[in-house]
Design brief:
The complex is a heterodimer of chains A (332) and B (489). Chain A has 12 helices and 9 strands. In chain A, the strands form 3 sheets. A 5-stranded parallel beta sheet of chain A has the order 2-1-3-5-9. In chain A, strands 4-8 form a two-stranded antiparallel ribbon. The longest helix of chain A is centred in the first third of the chain and has 13 residues. With 489 residues, chain B is of the alpha+beta class. Among the domains of chain B are: 92 residues, no CATH class; 139 residues, no CATH class. Helices cover 41% and strands 17% of the residues of chain B. In chain B, the strands form 5 sheets. In chain B, strands 3-2-1-15-16 form a 5-stranded antiparallel beta sheet, covered by helices on one side. In chain B, strands 8-7-6-11 form a 4-stranded mixed beta sheet, with helices on one face. In chain B, a hairpin with a 2-residue loop joins β4 and β5. The chains are: A alpha/beta (332), B alpha+beta (489).
């Protein structure tokens, strides 16, 4: 992992914004293949495993890094600063994982305002004792001097909402197999797809890969909650009345959740050419509804609890309605 | 006044900062440990169907997603007033033991061992996992990767998704175990036990039999007298998955023993304007500031505190090692921060033994995986021991089971104040007037932190790790007069 001057080796960086660490763990989870990666690439910045610092990145020439895998969403001013810095220093900047790609789970925060979020955490929380209503501050004067914190933004942003992104590798986290495939392709000098492409995933929807039994005519009369259904372990979830994002989600994950008998929640993002992931999912669900009667259809649709939080589970910041939400919050 | 900034700390998501203020004589005046990040899961859990939470809160942390999944799953069971059947409970616990094995192996070998195996003041370029492999041999390194992988494979088998597990449904689990799969896990668990014994022997040979290290553990500036917290079974033995939370005072006497739904009576959290991470303390003691001693409300929730809060381990080999540790250190509770590494390995042995017990349990291949949900209670608390401390999830819902409020107190957060104090003590111990602040000193300060295996992914709802550092030494005008860098290549 030594930083060498071997010009033939790929220079790679892995960085996290507002993330859980799962994307970095996915890199570690290549297990023994990690040695293949180290043989083919110099990891010049990777905070989870290596000790290169921000300062080292700042000191690099522009485009010094061949490829940066940026995971995590942009939640605060430090995340944004690092996104700009790594863009400047990298030939290829890849949005790695659901959070960088679409906002991810932290993006659900965009369904409420920053003010409400901070109030919940620092004031209302049942265990919090904060009668003086203290909130974290970007600058705090303490007895000994001054302390700084990054600014917590009004909303969560995807990586491409703050800087120019070359490619997207989806998934929460991307599977280690897909990562190895992409890595091997890049190292071998294979021709890269057009800028802006989603890589490390397939073109077809997850349903095409899923081995659960499907019939031609889905006939849903009511959508059910997982605790209302005893899953038979083999029939399509939607046909059992459970919401599954399979029809609108790219294949590539190896349908891992479905193998664990859990329906898909869309972390691999929408199938190609879809602008809004949730809208695509809603139209897919509509085709499963077994009714021509508008009132009945309405009733069936009403049986879907939390459509926004379900259809946009990992993609609120990338949704078309995002801007509206932001504007509403700004007015508060 | 001089100000030393350590920023960023890495292998913790890079989202951490240490500010050391020196007085005019060059001695440490105060130390602040700042967590600069927040995601705010409690807020955006609101409005979600409660049964979705176990698969949302895993995204709090990609290193210990299984802890959040289990704590959350138990809270959801309580919301629905449903008790999982024995097979489901045991499958959850079996998954959970594999989760502990994977995490404790990663922390000890990748993050902690370099300081002892390679040396606390060794060349930083060698003080890493590769340096460890140089010393202990490639076979050991290969074995470390293999055992961790096997633990991950058990998690993927039982939990579906290898990272963000999807195992729990209200009242049980989604998937059972076949006899063939059970047999494989049994063999793997036997291997875990052997590997745990090997790890304890390695710790003894390299750390305990080295006078310098033993002296550092016992007499270095790594000592905080605080209350100890941990989950115990009905016999007051350590349990990771279930039981009551027991807190003992600095002398080892019981401060409290509470059930999950009583946690609000015992735990409170403080907000400071200079960190996004709150500071929990014992409610009955009250917040007395960043001070240690019997008087303080600050507590620890770590592998060592779990052992302190219990009377022993529930499995025979681990219990023997438990007694041995207290005999050798000749005190209980133990307040030596670095003994956390030892405690972690004893826990590794316990998790391995417990995994074997569960793999041999006749219930484990049972077919009754879910209890039927019959109604909604509307409120529920779930507590498990995460690798990095006691984890509490508390949810409230409306009568449709839609979340109206959520409160989460995560493992590392418990230790926020203690970590601040440990860093200050170490800095005071090593940064002295007239002593050059070099890379070795930085690492010795960092060791105070690393022992906690802190997970700020969890805490901000951040990653465990060691902290490579940059230390800027500024003059009173704030100009940088010296920069010390420490990196591991």
């Amino acid at each position: 992992m030594e930083k060498s001057n071997d010009k033939s080796k790929l220079k790679m960086a892995v960085y996290w914004g507002a993330a859980c660490g799962g994307c970095c763990v996915s890199v570690l989870d290549v297990h023994e293949h990690l040695f293949d990666i180290i043989d083919a690439a110099d990891l010049v910045f990777w905070p989870i495993a290596l000790d290169f610092k921000y300062k080292d990145v700042e000191n690099m020439e522009d485009d010094f890094i061949d490829i940066t895998l940026f995971n995590g969403a942009v939640r605060n001013s430090e995340n944004e600063h690092m996104a700009h810095l790594l863009r400047q220093k990298s030939k290829l900047l890849v949005a790695y994982g659901s959070c960088a790609h679409m906002g991810g789970i932290p993006g659900l925060a965009n369904l409420s305002s920053k003010k409400d979020l901070l109030n919940r955490i620092y004031i209302e929380s049942e265990t919090t004792v904060n009668t003086e209503r203290v909130f974290p501050q970007t600058i705090t004067q303490v007895e000994e001097g001054e302390l700084e914190l990054p600014e917590f933004y009004e909303d969560v942003r995807t990586l491409d909402q703050v800087t120019d992104v070359d490619y997207y590798i989806p998934g929460c986290p991307p599977t280690s197999d897909r990562l190895l495939e992409v890595f091997t392709a890049i190292v071998s000098g294979a021709e890269l797809p057009p800028k802006g492409s989603v890589i490390g995933a397939q073109m077809k929807p997850l349903c095409d890969e899923c081995e659960r039994k499907k019939s031609e005519n889905k006939q849903v009369k009511k959508f059910l909650r997982p605790w209302e259904v005893v899953d038979d372990g083999e029939t399509c979830f939607i046909e059992q009345g459970l919401i599954c994002q399979g029809p609108a989600t790219r294949a590539g994950c190896g349908y891992r959740c479905i193998k664990g008998n859990a329906p898909c929640r869309g972390c691999y993002g929408p199938t190609p050419d879809v602008i809004d992931p949730g809208a695509k999912m809603m139209s897919a669900i509509a085709t499963a509804i077994d009714s021509d009667d508008s009132e009945e259809i309405e009733r069936i649709v009403d049986s879907i609890v939390d459509p926004a939080g379900t259809f946009y589970r990992t993609s609120v910041p990338s949704a078309l309605f995002r801007k509206k939400i932001v504007e509403e919050h700004m007015e508060v | 006044m001089k100000q030393i900034t350590i920023d960023p700390i890495t292998r913790l998501e890079g989202h951490g900062r240490i500010e050391i203020f020196l007085d005019d004589s060059g001695e440490v005046d105060n130390v602040y440990f700042q967590v600069p990040e927040l995601r705010g899961f409690e807020k955006f859990c609101e409005g979600r169907p409660v049964e979705e939470l176990p698969s949302i809160v895993t995204k709090i942390c990609g290193v210990c997603p299984g802890c959040h999944h289990m704590g959350s799953g138990k809270a959801v069971d309580a919301v629905f007033g449903v008790e999982p059947p024995p097979t489901a409970k045991k499958l959850r616990e079996l998954f959970y033991m594999a989760h502990f094995v994977h995490s404790h192996i990663a922390h000890f070998y990748v993050l902690a061992a370099p300081d002892f195996v390679v040396g606390p003041d060794a060349d930083p370029a060698k003080r890493n996992i590769l340096g460890v492999i140089d010393v202990v041999g490639k076979e050991v390194g290969t074995e470390v990767i293999k055992q961790r992988r096997l633990a991950q494979e058990i998690q993927a088998l039982l939990g579906g998704h290898q990272t963000h597990v999807v195992m729990n449904v209200p009242g049980g689990v989604r998937k059972g175990l076949t006899e063939e799969e059970r047999g494989n896990i049994e063999k793997t668990a036997e291997g875990f036990i052997e590997f745990s014994k090997f790890s304890l022997k390695l710790f003894e040979d390299i750390v305990l039999n080295n006078e310098k290290y033993l002296d550092l553990i016992l007499n270095g500036p790594y000592n905080l007298k605080l209350h100890s917290m941990g989950l115990v079974d009905r016999n007051n033995r350590v349990n990771f998955y279930d039981g009551k939370v027991r807190v003992v005072n600095t002398l080892g006497l019981e401060h409290c023993l509470y059930s999950p739904n009583e946690y609000q009576d015992y735990i409170a959290e403080r907000v400071e304007p200079w960190s996004y991470l709150k500071f929990p303390y014992l409610k009955k003691k009250g917040w007395k500031g960043f001070v240690d001693g019997e008087y303080s409300g600050v507590y620890t929730a770590t592998p060592l505190s779990r052992l302190n809060a219990a009377i022993g381990m529930a499995t025979p080999l681990a219990d023997k090692e438990y007694n041995r540790m207290y005999d050798i250190l000749d005190c209980k509770p133990v307040h030596h921060t670095l003994a956390m590494h030892w405690a972690r390995l004893i826990e590794l042995l316990y998790a391995s033994e417990r995994a074997l017990e569960l793999a041999q349990d006749p219930d484990i291949t049972g077919k009754d995986l879910r209890a039927e949900v019959k109604g909604i209670v509307g409120e529920g608390v779930g507590i498990v021991e995460a690798q990095r401390g006691t984890l509490t999830h508390h949810y409230w819902t409306d009568d449709r089971g839609i979340v109206t409020k959520a409160n989460i107190v995560v493992g590392t957060t418990n230790n926020n104040a203690a970590i601040c104090m440990s860093l200050k003590k170490a800095a005071q111990g090593f940064i002295k007037k007239g002593v050059e602040v070099n890379e070795g000193i930085l690492n010795m300060i960092e060791m105070a932190f690393r022992a906690y295996d802190p997970c700020f992914s969890c805490a901000t709802h951040n990653l465990p790790g060691e902290m490579p550092m940059i230390l800027n030494i500024r003059n009173p005008k704030g100009e940088i007069i010296n920069v010390i860098k420490r990196r591991r290549k």
